[in-house]
Each structure stands twice: as C-alpha cells, then as structure tokens.
Amino acid sequence: MTAEQAYTTRRDTAKAALLALDRQGARLANFRTLTFLTFLVVLGLVIFDRLPRWALVVSLGSLTAYVALAVAHARVLGREAREKVRLSLNERGLARLAGRWHTFPEKGASLLPDGHLYAADLDVLGQGSLFQRLDDTGTKAGERQLAAWLLTAAPSAAEVHERQGAARELAPLIDFRQALVTEARLAGQDKADPTRFIAWTEAPSFLSKVQWAWPLAHVLPVYTLGAGAAAAFFDVSSLFFWGGVLVQLGVVRLTGIALNQMWVALSSGEQGFVRFEETFAAIDRQTFTHPRLNALKAGVQGQGPSVSERLAAFARLMGFAELKNSGQMHPVINVLTLWDLHVLFRVERWRTTHGTGVRSWFDALAQLEALSAFAGYAFERPADVFPEVIDGAFVLEARGLGHPLLDAPVRNDVALTGPGHALVITGSNMSGKTTLMRTMGLSTVMALAGLPVPATRFRVGRAQVLTSMRVKDSLERGVSYFYAEVQRIKLLLDTATANRGACLFLLDELFMGTNAKERTLASKHLLRELLQLGAAGAVTTHDLALCELERELEGRVRNVHFRDVVTNGEMTFDYTLREGIVTTTNALEVLRRAGVVVAT
C-alpha cells in the first residue's frame, strides 16, 4: 500500500467513525435529557403528593440512568476527539504528499539559534523548511528533539545508523506512530511541554515543614466526625464536635501556606500530563525488534508498574486534589476531613517514589517522536535512500541528488573526493547554482541526522556544515552588508580551524559588498585558507577569475557550471550540472524580461 493509499484509507475510516459517533452522541444526549427530566418530574410529583412515595424509586432510577448515560456520553466524546486527531493526521499526510505542507503552522522558527552555522541558509527551520515538512510530534519535548537532531550532527556514524534502523522499522508502523501523536495531542489543545512537570517532580519537597500534620490528618477527622455523629444520635454534648472543628481549623491555617505553594507548583507543572498514560500505554503495547527502539521502550518501563499505570495513579490523585477548585464545597470538606493534607501528601509520596524517573520517560518519548517523524518522511518517500555515513576523512559522493524540499527536482551527480577539495560553480542568473549548494548542504544535514535523502546513492563523511548565503546587514547594530559577511566568514574560519579536515563549506557569491578587484583577492585567499584547513565544499561566483584556482590548485578545485538557453526571446534552464566554466551570461536578458531595457 502506498503512502497515499494508506492515508486515504485511514482518513475515510476516521470520517466514517466520526459520523457514527456523532449520531451515537446525539442519541445519548437526548436520552440524558429525557432521564433527567423524568427524575425532576417524578421527584416533584412525589414532593407535592401527586404520586405515592414508592415512586421515588422511579426518580432515583432515572437519576442513576442519567449518570450512566453521562459516563457513556463522555466516552463517546473522548472517542470522537481521538478520531478528529486521527483525521487531522491523515489529512496532513495527504497534504504533505501533495506539496501543501508549507501551510502547516509548526515551523520551528523559535528554536533557531542566532548565528547558527547553516540552519537559516539551508531552510532547516522556519517557513518552507525541512522542520515544517517533518514535524508531526505531539509534545514540545518531541519538537525540541527533532529540531536538535537537525541542528547538530549525530556524534558518530554508529548513532546515525541506529537512527536509520529505528526509522526503517517505524516507517510501516503507521498505526503506532499515529497513536503516539494522537494520545499526546489529546492531552492539551497545544503541544504539551513536560518541562514544568519535570521541574516539579525534581523540586525539593514543599511539605517537609508540615510533616507533623500528616498523623493528625488521620486522627482528628475521625474524632471530630465521630463526635458529631454522637451529638446527633446520642445524648452527647456538641462541644466535643465544635472543639474538634476548631482544632482542625487551626491545622488548616498552620499548613495552608505550604499546601498552597505545593498546589500552585503542581497545577502549574501538571499542564495536562494526567492524560499521558494513554501515550505511554501505546508504547507498552508495541513490539519492536530494533535495539534502539527496545532501549527507548525500556526507558519508559523501568522496574515495577508501567509508566502508564503510574501516570494513571497520578491522574486519580489529581482528580481528588482538584476539589480545591470548588470554591463552595472545598472549605467545608477540607476543614471537616483535612482533605488537602490527605491528598497532597499522597501526591508528594507519588513524586518521591516516581519523580526521579519522569525526565527519562519524557526523554525517551521525545526521541520516539523524533524517530517517528523521520519514519514518516521515509514512509512517504520510498524512493529516497538512507545514506552511507562514515567516520574518518570527509567525502561526499552523490548520484541522482535532488533538493529534498522540491516536488520534482532536477537531479545531478556531485562529488567531493576528500578533505581540501572544492567546486567552483559558475552560471547564469537563476540557472540553479545556489539551489545545488542548498541541495548538497541540506542533504548532508539530513544524512548526518539519520534521514533518507533524495538520491540513488549518497555517501558522506561526518562533518560540520558551514554556510554563508543569506548574509544580512543590521541598521540597528550599525553593521554594513560587507562587515556582516566578514563577521560570518570569520565565524566559519574559526569553526573550520577547530574542526580540521571535517567541515563542508557552502559559500554563495563571496564579498559582494566590495569592488571586483578586492573581491577576487579576498575570495581566492579565503578558499585557499579553507582548503589548507582540510575543509571541503563549494562556492558560487560570477567572477570568472576565481576559476583560475582550478589551475593554481590542480586536483583540489574543479570548475563546474549551469547554463541557460535563449530561443526566440524565451529563456530556459535545464538545471543540469556540467564540467568547466560557463561561457554565457544572462543579466541583460533578465532585466529585459522584467521590463528594464539597458542600452548596449
């Protein structure tokens, strides 16, 4: 089954399920209304002596039916919410296949560090980016993990191969991948962020100063409620009851600050995580064969009860604790039973028992989400290949390489045979020079993250990718375009020095902010410097003097070019990479086509 068929089938199934659930929910809502009205009418008729007292059985039966129907209706609404997320996921899959992923709201722009060595130039994050194409994570932690893998190369070829193997296994597991995201997204309207929850589980105890009140919470309410019952049914003074109430009121006052501090931290940190038991239950149910996936599954299981069971217990405690949100009932119940002490000390016990493992649970979940995003890309692009990534000397060999973000890219063969080798790319305007460099760079980033790439063969050594393509001046900082480019080049040189023999540089039209003579001298010097540091890469230029480096550095620099063809006033491009130096230019023709005629 192709990706399109799989998504279409699941989309149609979700639509049919939603229609059936909508009808079922409407029927349950009508029956709920009927049973509640029956309860009220029969109760009223009994109160006003229009029906005998035995009719109260009918009234109570109607109320019981109403409660049962409300529970059933809530389950239907839950299933409906789940099917809506599934429908959305499959519609997103079809949108990606149709090339409409540019409209997705998840762009990752806020995760892009200032001055990153390649991300902005290669469209890794932001509008129209690889991240926007990939992101189908369910939590903020998963989103950050995905971005981190795209922003930093894996530490070893072995790590890349592990991610590749995990992605291969996950690719056909559509139901598991969608269940993982579905349950996570049901936890909140926006992607849930476990950061605060983890911070709460790892924070010092808020209740250590009121530990003295824990035994009193078991003794005083029994005494007070017993004294109240004795006063009500036996000839016992009510002073005993009111004395107990006053003592418990004092306990509430003395422990109030600590309990409220814990409640604020708890309610702020919880942020929907009481509903994450289903996410981890989906992991518990899935069987894996790849060691990396089994290791991640073990990370969310540990010893004792499963994570889903532990979070379910936490959810129950939170349900009791949320009585604090009832402004009318809570004060009375709390004073009579010391409710907050009972519940929050049990929450504290849960935190003490399980809190140290929470970070590892969500770290493992985040990695599974990122790997699932990789797997989704592999599933949708079966013709792409998983690259051969090697440690050691840098090399880049690609056959039939196309740009990963284009629907129908023109494919070219590209080779950098070792450290200290470079391509000087010349060509007409709009002929494809910069697109080729972005193709090389983005494909390398994907390869070093563990993703497949659009090629028939791709072999690359681990390297730090360095780019200078979209340099911007800054009026606010008083930085000119030329000086901004100089700062960027200095950063790249420093990085290449620190990573000798393991850098891929991609430079677009160097030193455009200065005159032609100085531009040529500076560009040649920079390329020589990078090659001496063992960096490999490519540079685009309109300055044909730069092509002299092929002769000056024989065997280390290769001239390649793109060309255009003008036929009957129409300019066309084939975007095919060719050996040698371009022999034509098209700047005047581009101006003419834009309506600007330049006299020659």
Task: Count the DSSP helices.
Answer: 19
What is the CATH H-level superfamily of the largest domain?
A: P-loop containing nucleotide triphosphate hydrolases
Portion of residues in helices?
55-70%
Strand order of the largest sheet: 6-7-8-4-9-12
The CATH architecture of the largest domain is 3-Layer(aba) Sandwich
Radius of gyration equals 33 Å
Mean pLDDT score, rounded? 88
Output the CATH class name of the largest domain: Alpha Beta
Fraction in beta strands? 5-15%
Supply the helix-strand structural class: alpha/beta
Enumerate the spans where pLDDT stays under 50 for 5 or more consecutive residues.
none
Number of strands: 12
- Overall geometry: elongated
| Count of domains | 3
- Biggest sheet, open or closed, and with what strands and sense? 6 strands, mixed
CATH topology assignment of the largest domain: Rossmann fold
Termini separation = 60 Å
Layout: helices, strands, pairs:
Layout: H1 3-47, H2 56-97, H3 130-134, H4 140-151, H5 157-170, H6 174-185, H7 195-202, H8 213-233, H9 239-270, H10 277-285, H11 291-299, H12 307-321, H13 329-337, H14 339-380, E1 388-390, E2 396-401, E3 412-416, E4 422-427, H15 433-449, E5 457-461, E6 464-468, H16 481-498, E7 503-508, H17 516-532, E8 536-540, H18 549-552, E9 557-562, E10 564-567, E11 570-573, E12 578-579, H19 587-593
Parallel strand pairs: 1-5, 4-8, 4-9, 6-7, 7-8
Antiparallel strand pairs: 2-3, 2-5, 9-12, 10-11
